[in-house]
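For consistency, the fold was encoded as tokens, which produced the following:
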Amino acid sequence: MRQTEPLPSSGGAQPLLENIRVIDFTQYLPGPFATLRLAELGAEVIKIEPPDGDPARHTGVDNESDSPVFLAHNRGKKSVVLNLKTSEGRLAALELVRSADAIVESFRPGVMEKLGLGYEEAMQANAKIVYISITGYGDKSPLAYFGSHDINYMALSGALAQLKDSAGRPIHPTNTFADFFGGIAASERLLAGLVSMQHTGKGSYHVISLAETMVSLMGNHVMIEKLNGGQNGVEILNGTIVSYHLYETKDGRHISMGALEPKFWKNFCHAAGRDEWVSAHFSKAVPDNPIYLQIIELFKSRTLREWTEFGHSVDCCLVPVLDAGELADFPLFKNKGIVHDSTGGLRQVKMHGDVNQPDEAHPPEKGSSTSDVLKEMIQDYRIKAGSASSNS
């Protein structure tokens, strides 16, 4: 593992992945999210962009500025522009591979091989390389070469079927869960590969399937379906009982109740002045349950703010359903600056709240590190050439 200049860290703690270099060939969201998590742990992430830049720079915007999708997931990285379709670009990329500990790519299966940058070529350049391919459906499945997006992985995995309205229709998520879970799976596997390399001295190749990652979240559901035919997982967790439910407040907002354990439910009932509800702990959240109807009315008698204060003073697993714009000021996140405004004025979200973060970790301008990184490569090559010459 090579020596690199560590990113500055608030508080002075040594970054956990200091001296780890990751070459990031990914675009859009799953890969950049994975490498962002690594960058915030101290890894040097060199983002390889085509001449037109990562397409995520232009996602959802019709002007010259970088899009929120790019700005939110690429801070603290170096941007190097290479045209991988040219021999010069390929050779430069291979030279970077020689200096790296890991590679992450997210093209369709076979694309990196066509570019001469697949695992076999990378391993010839660096036998210790940990190589991660992020795919939709793996590299050998019947769907391996089909285009796809987050909504497709959600649908195929069974996860989307768990998000339904009162009429049984699946709800279109406003977050790309498969992309994010896939990114976490990719960073997890990369770290496992680095640990293995430390023990064996050998690199490794790993194919992450976003669809399979989402299926891995369905363990409870498939077990229960096999045993009794239930389609909605653990029954007491799917909104069917009064003590584990979402309730509307006076101002049209919603509060989440998670009082599964008797002590929490008793705390709630006592603080609400309704001790007669204690015995209804696991009663059904259905219209013909009078206690359920009474609970609905109780929650509608106070605002979200009032219920939030109630939840802060009573240990009963009661917290508000927050919107994106409320996260930065919520005490749990505000105290550690989990959601914060960077010195550049961008609102960002920390990947690891308990780890000291770089003080100045901005999203890179396209190609801003190309000259410096290529210059370093040339210097390293001359040092190696000189050493070989002196030993001959």
Observations:
- The chain has two domains: 21-217+364-382, 235-334.
- The first helix runs from residue 30 to 39.
